[in-house]
Amino acid sequence: MSVENGVEDGNASLTISSMVKEIQGLKDKFKREDVDSPSPFADLEKATVLQECRVFSDSKVVTESPRKCSQLITKLLHIVTQGDTMSSSEVTDVFFGVTKLFQSHDASLRRMVYFFIKEVAETCNPDDIIIVTSSLTKDMNSNEDLFRANSIRVLAKMIDSTMLGAIERYVKQAIVDKNAMVSSSALVAGVSLHQVL
Length: 197
Hints:
The chain is mainly alpha-helical. The chain has two domains: 41-124; 127-197, Leucine-rich Repeat Variant (Alpha Horseshoe), CATH 1.25.10. It has helices at residues 2-36, 46-52, 59-64, 66-81, 88-99, 107-120, 126-140, 145-158, 164-175, 180-196. The termini are far apart. Residues 46-195 form the Clathrin/coatomer adaptor adaptin-like N-terminal domain.
């Protein structure tokens, strides 16, 4: 019996040690691959990205090249999350440029727009937020459930007590919406608004 236990323990340790070696080998392999293929965001310069974002004003690019616009928003988000600060005029220019992306009906691009607005709204001038609020309110009345759900969540992160009255009716209607995504977004928005206000 003890011999069997020793064999079982020996097999178990062999299996565990071989797994550890295999995991270490994979870790080393991925580490080498990371060195061989640097991040596409490694050499981003804020000025260059801000210059590229001027294409947001071109409605043809917005409607025909949503992937390009999504990539530019990704670059902007990378710059913002890495701690590279933008001046108030740069934030305003980019913010207004991103609002022009509401012309596109591409779902992926629209998600990126919502995410960007939510991330940058805190650093924006409150006067700039009013313009975005009207676009988001329009999306709250859209026939597209994805747009309705996301716009409700973003608005809840952006508005203050003075703007609550303007969207309260929409949030109440969305809570009883037949689409689960819209109603859950409205519930989350309601909780978020209750905590802030």
